[in-house]
Amino acid sequence: MTTQGESFPLTRYSVLAAASSNDSAERSRALDVLFAAYWRPIYKYLRLKYSQAPQDAQDLTQGFFAELLERELLARFDPVKSRLRTYLRLCADSFALNEIKAASCKKRGGEFMHVALDFSAAEDDLRAQTIDPASIPSPESLEEFFEKEWIRSLFSSSVEELKALCESRGKLKAFALFESYDLEGEENLSYADLAARHGMPFTDVNNQMAWARREFRRIAMERLRALSASEEEFSREAKALFGESPV
Asked: Could you tell me the pTM of the whole model?
């Protein structure tokens, strides 16, 4: 399992290529990145689309990722035809339909050891979002929901990596500033307020915020690149998420 704060190498098709590598460590690292990015969006998507109880949705999620490995579904992905996350969502649909039809969902957590799946936290997310499956009017709405959850997962994992980086470099004050200003969204909070709250000169707040934001963008970009199927897709996604093409 990868440790928090460890970035995936910046190479074209990095996750896809490394996931089928002969090097077991490289393969495991790639799968860690892939599963960490996708398990929560997949779980929430299956939970809502198929009106599954939490335990059944957990079994489906673990079963799907086990099948992803067993049937080597990543090797079948064609980046010309779709984005990776679209392909994975469709594969999850196919798996869930077959399992539900056969009424044979099995607990397969032992075969899915790459990342710890905090299903209770995912359920908390759903309750906080107050989403009722019956209120989602169309498959297109669920596809949009999946897209938003994937972005949420990307940013959440990037925040976790930033925090680990700050801890390793003795910059927890920078993370605290970033958390207060950019994550908690306290209305009307200013840099001057942060300076007073943390007993810091205004210029230090400005410098540390600039550093934290720069590192967060770098981390998110690295993860996005690793999870993109091509450089072209990476460029499009980066522009959509950050309002500008990567440099």
From this structure: 0.76
